[in-house]
Q: What sequence folds into this?
């Protein structure tokens, strides 16, 4: 391609000074174009170009690799590998021990998440701490088929021997790298002995590696006596230069949306777990992006937020008072469940909140400093929180503090005090106290006003949160215990104002014992409406979530009254019928029922029964219902929808007004597997979100949809 790089290198005066760095105009990294294009041959199918004459490998032919968790070597993409190789060549002939090593800066790789130090031959993360370093390796010679690189020491020896013996010689005219040619009958024209192996050259571009282990020698002897050639029986063919040429165009897409991933309890017990969990979520998101969002020129990046390890809290006081019996179990509880007790403690709660807040702001500031165009181009920020992390993140966003509850309690006591009978002296003292408090409040306000005029208080978070995804969240329980009660507005603002966070979404597995629903805290009758089912990753043409109609938790439940019996036995209203066949709570498929974590959602007599009869009203009850259902189906985005008209027997119960619906659904439930045990799921489901492709698709669906909407509005303007 016109943007591919050319490097002319050699020994002596041919190209040793600057290692022949060259670049295209679009590459733009400060390199100069090669004076003359070398004659080249391309592999069948458009592979890496090969030159007529053997010469030193160009930077585009070398490929750098990294290895994580002691697994196989993974190649860097062309953009990263090329820049690492250029930094390596800048070290000069002396390599990492040369004087120029101090001037070579680390190379930013893997979408900016890591840096490579070519001097130490290691890679390390930019945004989080990691004890294990990631080794990197320069690949010049590769194993046929797998294209795994040879160890760097052996590769350097083979490359040096190859240039000494064949430099300047002509390559074969019909060079074909894809099909290994038989070398039967060909004698090796050159050989090189290594520590545990030896290499035979049967021609300039037919090179084989043989093991010198005793078992390999015996096997070679036996097979050769049977008539097989040495190469075909035990040799491994080697290739010089990587299968694909590295270009600056092979670069990752630009990040337009960053997602901070916040952990819950247990991080002290397994330090670094959030980094591994985020890596699993990132890998799942990459697979989803390749399959469903490849037409977007940008991508979503996930950054782990590890806030627990830096906190001192009580030091080792809790450990010192822990009995020795069953110590392993006690230590596990101290490292996990104790975080909940710390957060409910008035002494340590602020430390936890400040720790997470500072880490979020640090990561955002660091990311913007390394990606200055992110804010300029309107980059967005979302937060994915797990377990207790949801509660802490929520409190940071809205600025909640337990002192507010204390102030409300004092105010309530004052009101009760005013209502009871008091003597004249008590009344006079109470008036003085009231006047003194008013005066004190005025002085405090004036003092705060003076401070605000001189020191502008920075925002709690340095960014606006676009989406707040809760996974396995107990947030609803905390809000309920703080006195939050259902309202009648159907707006997210009831628990999280849209000015603070554009969208709140609560994801949970039906068997997760820690997770609770949020929708019934906004509108009470949503306790009778099932959460939205999250689509499976491989669902063909899934219905968009905003078009999915509410369905009941248990429409086949035994009726609670004669009226309910009539309504249940008939066809449900179009506005409440489920989109697809789904399993409801209480039903049993293959004798596997869902965990009853939403037992409160069962429909009983009284208010729940009337609401259910109202939602389940059939077309035979009143002729107006179908018309209302059609209107509801057409006006999906309306805040309120009249679902049905209550019967005359309930006309005096006060339910004549339309039932309010949520502006946006908040509770989203993962689907259970067909062979999933609810008891085993109760143990594993709380940590099953990280590697789920269903969750990854759900997250990206909302984030890319917002980008698409913004792009459409800009195009319209």
A:
């Amino acid at each position: 391609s016109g943007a591919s790089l050319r490097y002319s290198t050699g020994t002596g005066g041919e190209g040793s000074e600057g290692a022949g760095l060259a670049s295209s105009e679009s590459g733009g990294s400060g390199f100069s174009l090669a004076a003359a294009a070398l004659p080249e041959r391309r592999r069948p199918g458009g592979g890496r170009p090969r030159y007529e004459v053997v010469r030193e490998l160009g930077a585009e032919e070398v490929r750098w690799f990294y290895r994580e968790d002691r697994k196989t070597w993974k190649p860097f993409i062309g953009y990263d590998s090329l820049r690492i190789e250029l930094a390596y060549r800048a070290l000069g002939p002396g390599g990492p021990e040369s004087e120029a090593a101090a001037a070579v800066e680390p190379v930013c790789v893997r979408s900016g998440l890591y840096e490579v130090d070519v001097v130490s031959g290691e890679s390390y993360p930019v945004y989080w701490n990691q004890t294990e370093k990631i080794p990197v390796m320069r690949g010049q010679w590769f194993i046929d088929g797998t294209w795994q690189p040879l160890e760097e020491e052996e590769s350097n020896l083979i490359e040096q021997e190859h240039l000494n013996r064949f430099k300047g010689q002509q390559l074969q005219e019909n060079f074909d790298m894809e099909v290994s040619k038989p070398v039967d009958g060909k004698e090796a024209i050159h050989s090189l002995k290594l520590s545990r192996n030896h290499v035979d050259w049967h021609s300039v571009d037919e090179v084989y590696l043989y093991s010198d282990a005793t078992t390999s020698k015996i096997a070679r002897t036996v097979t050769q006596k049977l008539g097989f050639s040495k190469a075909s029986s035990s040799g491994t063919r080697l290739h010089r230069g990587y299968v694909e040429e590295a270009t600056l165009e092979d670069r990752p897409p630009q990040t337009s949306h960053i997602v901070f991933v916040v952990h819950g309890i247990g991080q002290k017990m397994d330090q670094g777990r959030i980094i591994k969990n985020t890596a699993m979520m990132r890998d799942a998101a990459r697979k989803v992006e390749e399959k469903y969002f490849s037409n977007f020129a940008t991508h979503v990046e996930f950054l782990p937020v590890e806030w627990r390890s830096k906190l001192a809290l009580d030091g080792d006081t809790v450990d010192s008072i822990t009995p020795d019996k069953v110590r392993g179990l006690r230590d596990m509880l101290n490292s996990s469940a104790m975080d909940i007790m710390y957060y409910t403690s008035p002494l340590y709660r602020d430390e936890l909140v400040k720790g997470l807040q500072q880490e979020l702001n640090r990561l955002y500031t660091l990311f913007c400093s390394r990606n200055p165009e992110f804010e300029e181009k309107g980059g967005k920020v979302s937060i994915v929180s797990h377990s207790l992390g949801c509660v802490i993140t929520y409190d940071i966003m809205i600025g909640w503090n337990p002192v507010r509850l204390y102030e409300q309690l004092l105010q309530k006591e004052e009101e009760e005090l005013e209502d009871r009978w008091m003597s004249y002296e008590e009344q006079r003292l109470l008036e003085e106290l009231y006047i003194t408090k008013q005066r004190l409040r005025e002085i405090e306000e004036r003092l705060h006003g003076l401070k605000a005029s001189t020191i502008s208080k920075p925002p709690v978070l340095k960014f606006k949160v676009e989406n707040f995804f809760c996974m396995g969240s107990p947030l609803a329980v905390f809000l309920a215990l703080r006195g939050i009660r259902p309202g009648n507005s159907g707006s997210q603002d009831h628990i999280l104002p849209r000015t603070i966070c554009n969208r709140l979404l609560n994801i949970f597995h039906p068997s997760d014992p820690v997770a609770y629903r949020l929708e019934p805290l906004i509108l009470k009758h949503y306790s009778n409406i099932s959460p939205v089912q999250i689509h499976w990753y491989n669902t063909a043409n899934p219905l968009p979530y905003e078009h999915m109609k509410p369905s009941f938790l248990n429409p086949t439940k035994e009726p609670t009254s004669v009226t309910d019996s009539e309504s249940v036995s008939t066809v449900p209203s179009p506005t409440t019928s489920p989109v697809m066949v789904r399993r409801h709570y209480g039903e049993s498929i293959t004798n596997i029922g869902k965990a009853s974590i939403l037992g409160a959602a069962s429909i009983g007599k009284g208010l729940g029964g009337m609401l259910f009869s109202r939602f389940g009203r059939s077309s035979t009850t009143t002729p107006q219902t179908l018309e209302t259902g059609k209107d509801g189906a057409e006006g999906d985005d309306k805040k309120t929808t009249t679902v049905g008209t209550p019967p005359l027997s309930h006309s005096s119960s006060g339910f004549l007004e339309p039932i309010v619906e949520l502006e946006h659904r908040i509770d989203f439930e993962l689907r259970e597997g067909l062979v999933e045990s609810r008891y085993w799921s109760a143990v594993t489901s709380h940590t099953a979100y990280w590697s789920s492709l269903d969750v990854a698709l759900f997250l990206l669906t909302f984030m890319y949809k917002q980008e698409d909407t913004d792009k459409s509005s800009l195009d319209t303007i």
Q: What stands out?
A: The radius of gyration is 34 Å.
